[in-house]
Amino acid sequence: MGEDIDAANKGVRAWGQAGAALVLVPGLALGLWWWGQGAGNYDRRKPPTCADADTAKTPGHASGRDLCEALHRPGLDALLGIPGREVRTVSGGSRSFRPGGTGEAIVTPTAKVEFEGYTVTLDAGYGGLPVGRTARLMGDTVPGRTVLGHPAALYSDRTLQIRFRLDGGDSSSGPGVPARVLSVATDGKDQGDSFELSVWRTDGGFLDDAALLRVAETVLPAVPGWSPAG
After folding, report:
1. CA distance 78 to 94
2. Of the segments 58-67, 158-167, 174-183, which one has the largest average pLDDT value?
3. Which pLDDT tens digit goes with each residue over 4-57?
4. What is the value of pTM for the model shown?
5. How many domains, in total, are found in the chain?
């Protein structure tokens, strides 16, 4: 995988004035927006904050800023097993859609924290698939998995690498690095609302699952809409 990344980097250099982003496919458009935001957000003299994160949300749901503030917390580097690693960029945004093209728009918030070599995202989904069904579809082989008493699914996904010319030329895409994903129901009833943590490494390696679970157990209770199991 390291060779694949090197080859991709060489391809970007060959394009000259070009940009690149690694995103999970469901958040493709927002991932490209993140890339643009992050490029201007990285300043070693000024620690990144969630001040510019999106506050749009529907009643009872989290916003992009809510997710950003829950995820961008002191000690996240230690939870990930990379103590002392500097945060490069943080962001929080949202996308919206109308089911069937009509009715009230559903806002889907998302946030990202990027370290050197590591990227962590947190998404909130409302009215979607129950986590138990996600576990079956994505091949989680541990039956009845839970996080803090909430139904959960743990599986692997793959990012999509986008390379695009900043002068308006044609873009290209291809397989990116693998990601480890943990989806957790917002409550113990698993009715379709969930939070999803994703982590990927630029070297193509996987984050230890125990570290991903530590992040979830620390971060998710701080997100608006999380209901203690009971």
Report:
1. 27
2. 58-67
3. 323 333 332 233 334 445 555 544 333 433 434 444 444 556 789 999 999 888
4. 0.77
5. 1
Q: Give the integer Cα–Cα distance in Å for 70 and 88.
A: 17
- Residue 157: which domain range? 21-207
Whether 106 is in a domain gets the answer yes
Domain assignment present for 29: yes
